[in-house]
Design a protein that fits this description.
By secondary structure, the chain is α/β, with parallel strands linked by helices. The chain is 49% helix and 8% strand.
């Protein structure tokens, strides 16, 4: 029997062990999609306790606690932080098979040197030990990022964001990690939502003029893309919950935009036409500035009406959508490729049924300009489990070139989540190690080592030109 989460955790063959320890383990990190706060990075926040670092805003943990019958008081409610930590320890102790179990213990080991398992009995001692470390300057936000060997991270930012903290960080010579913005224009596309007109009003305030026409709106959006580009942005991000494509004209979309500003109801077809044209316009801008366009597809959000009214979005009540994506996605990409204006694109799906669809779609739109221009993105959200990662990479490798894969991202709000890169790298090394030891690929350790280093870091560095 193997020891619990020892140095060869998840590594089942000698080849996997060598690949991880000699090649993957110490590679730096480019976290090209996360939800960390640039303000907290600039201010070098220190956490008052482990609950604040672990449980504030972590809807992965919240979901598990609810499943375990924990009262909301101990999740997002007014219970004290110690009691919330105990509730999490109680839940974690039975989370067998859930990656939260591995992630939690990797964080305890790598950041705090704690190799005990967390449960109700060990919780009080672990609470005291971790909190005493968090109180020191060595465990501030910036130090945690540096301990994680992060070279660059890309936050998630609304087009109307001032990026003031990115600017301050760029000018701060005491912090060498690149903290770059990422352009997330979801509210600009959600013309059917109550947030659309208030968001337009805020954009008007920044742009300095009213946006009564669609032409003016597009000019304002372009000005924000230029601003983000000047601030070092290399990537955009879109939550495409339903993949849509509808042929239309600028004149037609201009009329749809005008109706929306007047508060008139839009048809489903009108909404789809507006989203299609606007996303294509954005894609062309991304191509102009050599950004990567990320499309996160197939989330079904805010399913629990009562809890949405109580807590708002992104609180653990989202799921997987099962709409058809192949045809509209292909049409969107092709419409940009026809004019040779398709940007670098990373495709993610929340529904694993679409894995081979994405893996084959990326092969349809490579143009030879750079390796892996169109990417099948890493296993995302509910899929960033061991099985989910293996499934994604198996599909990618089977119809493409895994050596060109840009690898892992955290997609996280937690400064302690960088151990997920280690988790991912161990799985990559084990997958490749099994292929080698099964006689499916030569035991050329130099080539294999280069492949895992490419997936771990090198490909992302070249892809984003960082």
């Amino acid at each position: 029997m193997k020891k619990f989460m020892d140095e060869n955790f998840l590594l089942s063959t000698p080849t996997a062990v060598k690949l991880f320890h000699d090649y993957a383990k110490d590679m730096p990190i480019i976290d090209y999609h996360c939800h960390l706060s640039p303000k907290e990075i600039y201010e070098n926040k220190k956490f008052k306790n482990i609950t604040e670092a672990w449980l504030y805003g972590d809807h992965y943990k919240w979901r598990a606690m609810r499943i375990n019958g924990i009262d909301e008081k101990y999740i997002t409610g007014d219970a004290n932080d110690y009691d919330k930590f105990l509730a999490w320890a109680k839940t974690l102790s039975i989370a067998i098979g859930n990656p939260l179990y591995s992630w939690t213990h990797l964080e305890l080991q790598r950041y705090f040197g704690i190799y005990d398992t967390l449960d109700e009995n060990s919780a009080p001692e672990i609470w005291e030990k971790v909190n005493s470390l968090l109180a020191t300057d060595d465990f501030s936000v910036r130090e945690l990022i540096k301990k994680s060997n992060v070279k660059t991270l890309c936050t998630t930012d609304d087009p109307i964001d001032s990026l003031e903290y990115h600017k301050k960080l760029k000018e701060d010579n005491d912090f060498s990690v690149n903290v770059l913005p990422a352009f997330r224009p979801d509210k600009a596309l959600r013309i059917n939502k109550d947030t659309f007109i208030p968001w337009i009003k805020k954009l008007e305030g920044i742009y300095g003029r009213q946006l009564e026409s669609y032409d003016e709106f597009l000019k304002a959006i372009e000005s924000r893309v230029e601003f983000f580009n000047n601030m070092g942005c290399r990537v955009s991000d879109h939550a495409i919950d339903v993949m849509e494509y509808a042929e239309t004209t600028k004149e037609e979309v201009s009329s749809i935009y005008g109706k929306a500003l007047k508060g008139q109801a839009l048809t489903k077809e009108e909404i789809s036409k507006y989203k299609t044209y606007t996303l294509k316009f954005l894609g062309k801008l991304y191509h102009k500035f050599d950004w990567a366009m990320q499309l996160h597809i197939a989330a079904l959000r805010d399913n629990n009406t009562n809890m949405y009214k109580k807590l708002g979005p992104d609180t653990g009540f989202d799921g997987i959508n099962d709409d058809s994506i192949a045809e509209p996605l292909s049409k969107l990409l092709d419409s940009l490729q026809i004019d040779n204006l398709l940007p670098k694109t990373i495709l993610y799906t929340l529904n694993p049924k679409d894995n081979l669809i994405l893996a084959t779609t990326v092969g349809n739109f490579q143009d030879g300009s750079i390796p892996g221009k169109i990417q099948f993105g890493s296993a995302w959200w509910f899929n960033d489990t061991k099985d989910g990662m293996i499934d994604q990479m198996n599909n990618l490798a089977s119809v493409g070139l895994i050596d060109r894969f840009i690898g892992m991202l955290t997609d996280s709000r937690s400064f302690l989540s960088y151990t997920r890169h280690e988790y991912f790298r161990r799985i990559v090394c084990d997958l490749i190690g099994k292929w080698v030891e099964n006689g499916e690929f030569p035991n050329d350790i130099e080539l294999l080592g280069k492949i895992v280093q490419n997936i771990s870091y090198n490909n992302a560095k070249e892809y984003f030109k960082i």
